[in-house]
Amino acid sequence: MRRDFEVPDIGEGIAEVEIIEWHVSLGDVIEPDQIVATIQTDKAVVEMPTPLGGTVVHLGGGPGELLGVGSVLISVETTDETSGPLAPAGTATSPDGAADVSGKTRVETVSPRDERTAARRVKAAPSVRRLAAEHGVELAAVRATGPGGRVSREDVMEAAAEGGLRGVGAWERARVGPDWPRTDIAEESGADEHVPLRGLRRQIAKTMVESWRNVPHIIDYRDVDASQLVEARQALREAWPNHANALTYVPLFVRATALALRRHPLMNASFDQEASEYVLHRRIHIGIATATSDGLLVPVVRDADRRSILELAVELAQLVELARTRTATLDQLTGGTYTVNNLGSLGTSMGTPIIRPPEVGIAGFGRISDRVVARGGVPVVRPIMTLSSVGDHRLHDGDTLGSFTSTLVRLLEHPYALFADLA
Amino acid sequence: MVVGEVAEGIDLLVVGGGPGGYAAALRAAQLGRQVVLVESDGLAGLGGTCVRVGCIPSKALIELAEVRHRALQFEAAGLCIPSIEVDLARFQAWKGGIVEALSHGVGTLLRHERVRVVAGTATFNKPNRVAVALPDGNVMFFEFRSAIVATGSQPLQLPMLPRDGVRVLDSTDVLALAEVPQSVVVVGAGYIGVELGTALAKLGSRVTIVEALRSVLPWMEPAIGRVLLRSLKRLGIEVFLGAEVVGLGEAGLVVRVGDAERTVDGAVIVVAIGRRPSTHEIGLETTGARLAPDGTVEVDASRLAAPGIAAIGDLTPGPALAHKATAEAGVAAESLSGLHSKFDPLAVPAVVFSDPEVASVGLTEAAARALGMDVAVAQFPLTASGRAATLGAKEGFARLIVDRGEDAVVGAHLVGPLVSELAAEAALAVEMSASPEDVAGTIHPHPTISESLHEAALIFAGRPLHVTAGVGD
Lengths: 423, 473
What we know:
The complex is a heterodimer. Chain A contains 11 helices and 19 strands. By secondary structure, chain A is α+β, with helices and mostly antiparallel strands. The termini of chain A are far apart. About 16% of the residues of chain A have low confidence. Chain B is α/β, with parallel strands linked by helices. In chain B, strands 1, 2, 3, 4, 5, 6, 17 and 18 form an 8-stranded mixed sheet that branches. At the A-B interface, helix 2, helix 3 and helix 5 of A face loops of B.
């Protein structure tokens, strides 16, 4: 009996999903609850299980193809007599299946293992171990198909395709020098490589083109004297040594931005060209531009203006980690009303961030570096940061953008206000 | 003074020009990094302890001693040489030529990769900043994006026996001797003590070795120590085990063995009790790196000790061996350059140029049992090897340690002539998790000492050829 499994409605208004990768092929015999594919929504990567057991006779599309909710993802030939399309997991068949398909991705936690015991128990040639390290694959977790239980190169590549660097995440990344960009220098072969746009990259390309084409950007650049900001951050770290790693400048930027947005509601808005209106948001949800191995993601801190700096620091650290490991939920990746981009973490001193519609503003915080500035007619060295405050010119003019930016600069230069103003 | 403290921004800093440091610099340069290598002795220091005062010069001395010894040994086989004189002054010139050529070669490689070599002593004073004291007394500062620390190690001293370079020597002094001392007391029966003691005995010195522990090469498979002890005695070397150094007296070195004190006379005392990582006074703690009580730096699998800073070689836990440093160098350079790389060997082979030679690879039998493996041991005696007989070997063996659960070779321990060259084959077997059957199924050339590994594997396979031994467990 042939049975179909349809793309489930995973909520959040998602109408279609993209197939990233199949974990089964035509003719494979699968078991109920087996992960059959990796799919991607606008934001999240989801490992998709099905309640079906039997022989795979149909796949709904190839990698990169888009499937609408309700269309057939996979069909199997079963031996039992039940017929008709099967309800998606979570509606009837599997009471706990809902969580599997609700947009929450499989959480992959990889703990740093003792290198000797980990390596000791896995039979793999040095070349295979190197390959695994390059692809961020934990050898102990790889299914070994080689002779005598050895992990083969193919086993590693298969594991890399399934998870790979996603599972390594920030723990390992954090161990790389502060300024060194992660690029694969070793990737130097003669022939050009044609790489199809897939998943997150395709999504980013689409959104950015839309914004660049439709939104007239105006940018207000300011040089901010960060002397007090540097001191404040240091004082915070000393006050909460346990949270020293989380107390980067970003929580301070977010808090300053949130307070400035509260005073300038026109910047905390959505612009809707088709409806010829704009929406002023009462609540302030700030997105944080976050680099991941797959591309840019923007996890969102809700009600950022009502959080203390320490609360922000802790939540930001968690959100960024979830985003980097691609384990953030859709909820954590949507609903922002304004975006903060910490350009300085990449070493950029001045950038031009692009607005994420329907938002009407984005702020880029450049690297803080010592520069010579005039103070009272005398040249002095001060830590200076260039702020790029970007506005949508359809809604903002130089004066409204400028007054928001001035407030933001004032808060950054006198950060004690960030501690005082807690609603 | 503010002006003098302006730091030059650099990309990747390497501290130390030894087998760790120069290999790290070369790998980083291959990856497109701009590398500055700070070495306290500048170009003249390239190659480090290994090339200048360690592996290479000691092997030169051992070779000289071996030729003299063999010549005398082969009198019975028909070799007639009226007299053999050793001129250590000429040896020093010869050795110097070898060392300079190798060191110069390192400099050439670095120049080809556009690595800038700066002579000076580096001290970290911030997470990304280092002060370099130059030979002319000036100080310059670098601000780096990444750093690889490879400052190596120094010989340990005994507090009651401070080195004076005349009567009390360390290994570096021994390699620079201008004449063969009449009598020598070597403190320490680790690999350095055994190598130097053996070489000096073969050059004509009367040698005594005193060791605080109860065996020779105490960290090796115990059977190896027993073979070596007998061999040292055959060379006329007196060995005191469990002997504690009390101090230096008029007549010689005073040691306590059990309850009795005795004096061991020697024109020179050589202290070879181990090496200490050179991590003190280089300001590493200002980078956020953490030091263990033994002076080693805590590192992760990528050899990173702090964000952007790696430590390698004798600075990290594990044996202080050049090839370990070189392997870690590649990992560190890659990890700091955005590649994913791990130091995860199953075996760091160790070789000792004693007489007979020793090679130790992977787990000892005791270590394999401690890991809960189903251990089996097979051993082939070199007395059954034709090649060993022609080399005049009196005893020796090749021992394989196998994990029966995984059907894999996990260790190999050899003592016999030329076995240092077999360490690599054994290491390959361990790294590849070779089954004993893989080794048994590989044809080994006759007549070579390498057949001993093959024969040990044949014992596992149940078809021994030149012995009637079985597998022990």
